[in-house]
């Protein structure tokens, strides 16, 4: 059993996707950052940086093993299961390159763009322009990488899981998937995967009312693209369920 310390975000979704794809048993431990629960001594004993996600592998050799930082968690789970990360060779190199690209580039820059676009204030115009342009550059890098490829590395794996949740919020980064057709194709291919749908459902089914209100607010629900994405995912899920029932 694995304890997943969770609050809805692109970084926690990537770990939830991996757990679902691997079929590992896990239980969600909500860390309500709206109440500063990430700052408690108990949580920081697991995640010294005071950020979600974190996991505790209760079945690890030698006793419970805590792991923090989403990229480290993905690698840990891949090596634990032997899934979604080649053990050696060019496939492993590509997966690690693109995992670190997301961790060091797409995630931080998209997070900054999201922040300055959402909390617009006088004098923020330079920051909005700078981060929005850098995120557009990074989406372009990913679009070129995906040209002629189904997945980011040589096969579906942790590099895809790491980036997908960030692209979900593309409108909040000031981007349109219409400008990045190969990213769009890849995004919806991932959205159709049952494990991805189950991981995303954690944002709907595992939240207290006070936190759910944030995701029901106009900033999250006022995005036409997001509505299309939700409809697509629901349709794909219903189609899959219908096929299994036949």
Automatic annotation (TrEMBL):
Domain of life: Bacteria
GST N-terminal domain boundaries: 1-85
Organism whose genome encodes this protein: Croceicoccus ponticola
Name under which the protein is recorded: Glutathione S-transferase
Stored InterPro entries: Glutathione-S-Trfase_C-like, Glutathione-S-Trfase_C_sf, Glutathione_S-Trfase, Glutathione_S-Trfase_N, GST_C, Thioredoxin-like_sf
Classification via Pfam families: GST_C, GST_N_2
Cited CDD domains: GST_N_Ure2p_like (cd03048)
Molecular-function annotations in GO: transferase activity
Keyword flag Isomerase: no
Signal peptide: none
Residue ranges constituting the GST C-terminal domain according to the UniProt record: 88-212
Highest classification ranks of the organism: Bacteria, Pseudomonadati, Pseudomonadota, Alphaproteobacteria, Sphingomonadales
Keywords, sorted A to Z: Transferase
PROSITE patterns for the chain: GST_CTER, GST_NTER
């Amino acid at each position: 059993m694995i304890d997943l310390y969770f609050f809805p975000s692109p970084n926690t979704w990537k770990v939830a996707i991996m757990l679902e794809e691997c079929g590992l048993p896990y239980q969600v431990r909500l860390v309500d950052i709206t109440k500063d629960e990430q700052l408690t001594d108990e949580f920081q004993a697991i995640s010294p940086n005071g950020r979600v996600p974190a996991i505790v592998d209760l079945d690890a050799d030698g006793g419970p093993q805590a792991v923090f930082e989403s990229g480290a968690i993905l690698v840990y789970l891949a090596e634990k299961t032997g899934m979604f990360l080649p053990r050696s060779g060019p496939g492993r190199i590509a997966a690690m390159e693109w995992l670190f690209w997301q961790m060091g580039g797409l995630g931080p820059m998209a997070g900054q763009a999201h922040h300055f676009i959402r909390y617009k204030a006088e004098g923020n115009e330079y920051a909005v322009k700078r981060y929005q342009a850098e995120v557009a550059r990074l989406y372009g890098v990913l679009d070129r990488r995906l040209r002629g490829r189904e997945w980011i590395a040589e096969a579906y794996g942790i590099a895809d899981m790491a980036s997908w949740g960030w692209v979900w919020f593309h409108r909040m980064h000031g981007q349109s998937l219409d400008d990045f057709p190969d990213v769009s194709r890849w995004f919806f291919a991932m959205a159709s995967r049952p494990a991805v749908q189950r991981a995303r459902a954690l944002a709907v089914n595992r939240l207290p009312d006070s936190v759910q209100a944030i995701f029901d607010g106009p900033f999250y629900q006022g995005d036409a693209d997001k509505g299309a994405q939700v409809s697509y995912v629901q349709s794909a899920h219903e189609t899959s369920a219908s096929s299994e029932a036949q």
